[in-house]
């Protein structure tokens, strides 16, 4: 895992892990971060995710929800952390090497835990199989994240932005866990239409929406009123935990 995530929170222990934990918690608990998160997620939904849903529904096409939700969380977390919109959520669903690099990297890391060490090290030396994909993923991530960081350094009058590993770890955490939960959540809704109806009714009632009115922006305080929706999400995570 060090090949990709370096000394980020997923790879370290003891004092360094405690440092990363405190740093991450201090960021996420800040009031301005919460406001920025709400606005950023809604922007990505309104400008990226929602148009895709409408377009595929009108054309009667099948949509790969897992792929779309991975793009949604990738765009959201990248915009949040690096103030850069990769626009992977376009109607044509473009292939972006750095967006797919996360999946390839995780697949290769999992492969290392299954294969004998001598086998994957040989693959790494020969640059074949999963190890070749891992190398390509590493290069794609470097080519994507370093220019974003350099741009932010210039905007901040050359103040130093340290630890690229932290960005990669947070992007990984924000992309895969959330997208997995959303995918299972909508799969369960498709299997249980009565639950979907109850969630729609609760949103319309608590957010004071008319029956045919589109969902509008709602903040954290309004979200806390959606008790049934919260219960459905918790049940999804109980049945299909994103992290185990």
Question: Could you characterize the architecture of this molecule?
Answer:
The chain is mainly alpha-helical and 244 residues long. It has two domains: 170 residues, Orthogonal Bundle (Cytochrome p450); 53 residues, no CATH class. The chain contains eleven helices and no strands. Helix 3 packs antiparallel against helix 4, helix 5 crosses helix 7 and helix 6 crosses helix 7. The longest helix is centred in the N-terminal third of the chain and has 29 residues. The radius of gyration is 20 Å and the shape is globular. The chain starts with a helix and ends in a 5-residue tail after the last helix.
Give a quick precis of the structure.
The protein has 244 residues and is mostly helical.
